[in-house]
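**Sequence, structure tokens**
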Amino acid sequence: MTDAAELRRRTQEFLAAHPPAGTARPDFLRARFDAGLAWVHFPEGLGGLGAPRSLQAVVDAELAAAGAPDNDPRRIGIGLGMAAPTILRYGTEQQKHRLLRPLWTGEEVWCQLFSEPGAGSDLAALGTRAVRDGDEWVVNGQKVWTSSAHLARWAILIARTDPDLPKHRGITYFLCDMTDPGVEVRPLRQITGEAEFNEVFLTDVRIPDSLRLGEVGDGWRVAQTTLNNERVAIGGTPVPREGGMIGKVAATWRERPGLRTHDLHQRLLGLWVEAEVARLTGVRLRQQLVAGQPGPEGAGMKLGFARLNQEISGLEVELLGEEGLLYDDWTMRRPELVDFTGRDAGYRYLRSKGNSIEGGTSEILLNIVAERVLGLPAEPRTDKDVAWKDLAR
């Protein structure tokens, strides 16, 4: 299906058969998935119609005009932006048909078990072990900075299956049921007072080989699909002009002229332009995705997202003066999502500090941009051909 008019007609027929006002939200979302209107570029039977990705906007516009419910994408962003494209590319047919529908409807939340206390920026140095025992793998280790682990039913997990190989080659990718015995989730309280992040301990967790994604030892290559999509999901999320944090500062500037100074005006103008450039660059990146898989350009978008958020939130605190030093609530909470625009300036300032860490540190992303986008010489690496077990730790 490549015709927008035909897709619009199909969406209207779906709405006539499932009127949003008279259909329970879970039933509406399941029916939308089954009709191929969830993500139209996915194959038929998996929430799509095999149509060009660009035609998703046609469906979304018709559904929005009819007041249809969405799947709360901010709450299930890891599943939508990271797990789903990886499962689609590397999963078995059984895995795809079992996992993608409840992932998209939000009935099953996903988290990401990648980073470890000793393997954050150098993710390939991870030490969580998976040892094969017949048709199962026994997993032991610790993961950290795991968003939504306290809500998740499933996790994407990478673990070391061969310590005798160099660090990038002895890794395998798994799908982990977070309800299994041996999975323990502990909150990590942040500077905001919340605990949206977690540390996860895996003790003799038994994962069936049927939940392996990709070949044994090929986990690093599979993980690159996840990481590339993660950077696009974080840095390339569509926003309207003056959407996001720049909109909050611009609104305060217009509504409270007594706070204005010449210096703050110049800084606001510069950041407004940068935010608009970033927004339009995101539009172009999403257009490029129509033609294939995301590339390292997503790293540049994520870099810009982190820097802009931090600079904009700093400007907002300065603009508000003493008021900007206030903070609304230090209560320990376990939120379901990050709400940058629904809280006060103090929250935005504190929470944005994590933007240059989560989803790949800015320092590592600078290397990715330098080497894979600009083609600069790679940094010298002495551990590429050394067995993981022989690395200094």
User: Anything to note?
Assistant: Residues 264 and 315 are 7 Å apart (CA to CA). Strands lie at 110-113, 129-133, 136-143, 154-160, 171-177, 183-188, 197-208, 212-213. The radius of gyration is 22 Å.
